[in-house]
Amino acid sequence: MAGPVLEMRSIVKTFPGVKALSDVSLTVRQGEVHAICGENGAGKSTLMKVLSGVHPHGSYEGEILFEGEICRFKDIRASEHHGIVIIHQELALVPYLSLAENIFLGNEHARRGLINWNDTLRHATELLRRVGLDEHPETRVADIGVGKQQLVEIAKALSKSVKLLILDEPTAALNDEDSGQLLDLILELKNQGITSIIISHKLGEIRRVADSVTIIRDGKSIETLDVKAKETSEERIIAGMVGRDLDHRFPERTPHEGQEGAAPALEIRNWTVHHPIDQQRKVVDDVSIQVRRGEIVGIAGLMGAGRTELAMSVFGRTYGRYAGGTVLKDGKEIRTKTVPEAVGHGIAYVTEDRKHYGLNLIDTINRNISLTALGKVARRGIVDEHEERQVSEGYRTSMNIKAPTVFEPVGKLSGGNQQKVVLSKWIFAGPDVLILDEPTRGIDVGAKYEIYTVIDRLAAQGKAVVFISSELPELLGMCDRIYTMAAGRLTGEVPRAEATQEVLMRHMTKDKEVTR
Amino acid sequence: MSTDVTAKTPAPAPPGGSGSATGEGLLGLVLSGLRRNMRQYGMLIALGLIVVLFAIWTDGDLLLPRNVSNLVLQNSYILILAIGMMLVIIAGHIDLSVGSLTAFVGAFAAVLTVQHGLAWPIALVLCLLVGAVAGSIQGFLIAYLGIPSFIVTLAGMLLFRGLTEILLEGQTLGPFPDGLQKMGNGFLPEAGPSTNYHNLTLLLGLVLIAAVVWQEVQGRRRQQEFALDVLPGRLFLLKLVALVAAILTLTMLLASYKGAPIVLIILGVLVVGYGYVMRNAVFGRHIYAIGGNLPAAKLSGVKDKKVTFYVFLNMGVLAALAGLVVAARLNAASPKAGVNFELEAIASSFIGGASMSGGVGTVLGAIIGGLVLGVLNNGMNLLSVGTDWQQVIKGLALLVAVGFDVWNKRKSGS
Q: What is the dihedral of CA A308, A310, A316, A318, to 10 degrees?
């Protein structure tokens, strides 16, 4: 068996307020395909950014050995110089440049600043053939599909004489055919002697291409398993991914089953949504869910499962292209084509990305809270500032938003307090149904508990709550019922009594073949 | 002026400061209030400095009643444009067409009144209507078809300039009827017994002072009613005295010459009205919301397209009004009127605290920015600085103002 090509020893990486990696070690052997898996937020991507120099030497602790040498990369160029190339989830191609131009971007075949087009095109053709892409090198990147773009990224990596190729969730945005082609290519490159690290949570995929898999959980490397060995079953990997103790604390909560017989507060039937650009791809595929008053219903799923896309497309068609399905409120079909319509029917969507979709960061707490329901503090189009201020002061107290006054700009608050502002804003709108998308992402434990308490209070008031989360313990601790999604489809519905992390994870990692 | 009433900053009251204000504490409170609102007060202080400097350099000529009156008349149309431009910039857009549009409306007014002898009030209404139509066409293209505002209004800039020349056939057209002329050059009429001052202007000033004091006291009482923090008593008194003194000074200056210019009254109404809308109306809030974070505003149910549309429609109407004032002041419609007005209005907005990325700015800020440029212009004219150097200095002023803002923001780490 070949010796190690890469060793990462006791890597610790801290962001302000968060320890993203607390102790990760990784050993990759020469010429293997090494998978890294773990839940969302476990620290996989951060680890790869440390390796590739995105987070430069000095910003983390621990050491990296590549080909026996200690490496101190100060940026991506330095790591690429050593033959380590990372392909990110979001592709880094310039859409309006040609394939050839993209492949050699920053690395042009040029003399004295002038590009030698003959060399460029010849070399590009060669590389494209090597990755199995049958396109002319002068085609624009914008004119080919995402799957092919992924191959261009790999061709670009090959042009840099790559020794270690890192792929961060390479198939997340691809359909089955493109995924298959990409995985074949990874195996082909392995035969040519290129070592790969592939981040993925699709267990079928890992079994197909990987030789070994390292599991990362809560910023720690848990174990490395030999994929080809018999005892490494999918269950074994799942156990490694979720095997944490339930040390989060949740408010005491009596489960609500909701009233039987009464129509659900919100029901979504056969909802299908296409990707906004790639219209062949179904991002949400025939999903039906319902939630009753007083009930907290979870939606579990890994990256790319389509949870956010489902929520946003229901909420005023703010994502993708609607391709079918109906929304019922209290048993009656309603129109939710625009956000004002959805809000008018008493639906609120609290976004997972509060900085981009939730808040106006340069404005005050006061004005952020009142924005959605300005009409409530306005008469004939004129806002009563005193009343507005009283309302927001009320939320500052009741939600325990830590700020000296409500005139503090929201951008200056911590993540937890920002989240409380977003929640206040939507609670003030007075909805019957709240769709909460990752409401505790990126906030500390204390603030999480406060948010759980608020959610519990909302349900006790008879509101219907849809709780989307990647943290299974949180869903298990809060929800009365949990739906699971994978690759745009509903893959399970688990009542509180039967829900365990293992059961949910099994539903969440179902591949297409399994569901059929 | 009444501007301070409506566009004041949201009560920067340090909590619990009312009891502990000693003599030294008062100064501390003023300073901390200033520091907290650097953006707002920074430019006001800069304007004050510029005024004082030029007053010294011109041996007081800058502050002669006649010159103050002139200053208002010379800058009124830029200030009118700056108000509309501020809204456009807050919404995250830009409007390059306003200079050409002012010229076009002026030409249209001349054709109506001079060539066809239409009664001036009817012409006035028609002109504002033309502005509204022009603004709404541009607004429609920007908001509903999604063409970038830079492109649409750049096209508008060329288009309206061309239409102006077509309309005037390259000639200058005038003079305007008396009523229209008054919009640009007129003053409040004389009335009452003969004093050394202009009576109506004095009366207006006193009414204004009464209104401002009443408004401030009322506002404070309501805040207390809602059990909210209020400005500490001494600071509040200081603010009132400063406001009254400012209005009184301006009133006396104007009253000792020909009285308040009519255009100043128009401007005052606009500032109060737009300040109120931007601060207190749902519409104003929505403009800040779409400029500050468009995706978040959309997801909050703000009808972003409608808001954008009306912002441009409004800009069209204000450009038409400015066009009438310019034409009336020159007493002629010229194909070369309004050149570079859009740039002056944009510069005013940025000097007054607007941000390139939108979401920030106040109507009062646009006025202060416009006055900074106006006083620079006027002061340099008094000192007979050539237009070549005037441009250089105005360019530097813009750079310094925005540079200071960027530096200040980076320092406070936001």
A: 50
